[in-house]
Input
Amino acid sequence: MTATGAFGFPIFVEVRGRRVFVALGSHESDAKAETLAELGADVSAYRVSDGPFDPRLLDGAVLAVVGTGDRVVDHQIAAACRERALLVNTVDDIPWCDWSAPAILRRGDLTLAIGTGGIAPALAARLRDAIGEDLVGPEYESLLELFAEVRPEIARSGRSFRERRALWYRLVDGPAVDLIRRGDRAGARAEVENEVKRWEAQAA
Output
């Protein structure tokens, strides 16, 4: 199957403690810079008012965001990024983008990202809000915290990937999330722990 549209391979990138170059000047690039900083990125900022762009400003960056409000300058910077094989997001200019920033729903370590190939970010935002209101509430953050507690034990079990995957599906489909919704976190923890114990006993 051939992917259609732009940005066909979605990934999550760790930016904490890493340098990200942002050419500021538009609302979108300024907002992305703020989000990147909140995620712990070392944001290296440039504005047209700083003077002529120097490609050395890109040194050490792992990602770039370009949105000065001046298309000529944006394309100059994006071209310099591509010469260095540095993935660049050129705001609202899909042909000059190597990656897009999706609409994001966070529930602790659970992250849902919705993209439209850069075509209609507003649609992605509306879908994110609908999912957050109707399907994925804050209980999933607590569920993931419980899963984090038992994950090392499951990983140490020595069981096959297929067996571990089957257990994870039982945990995900089990009653723990409903117990959390009803405020019974202790019951949810007991349910998860007991399911893991039953699974381990099957191998004995």
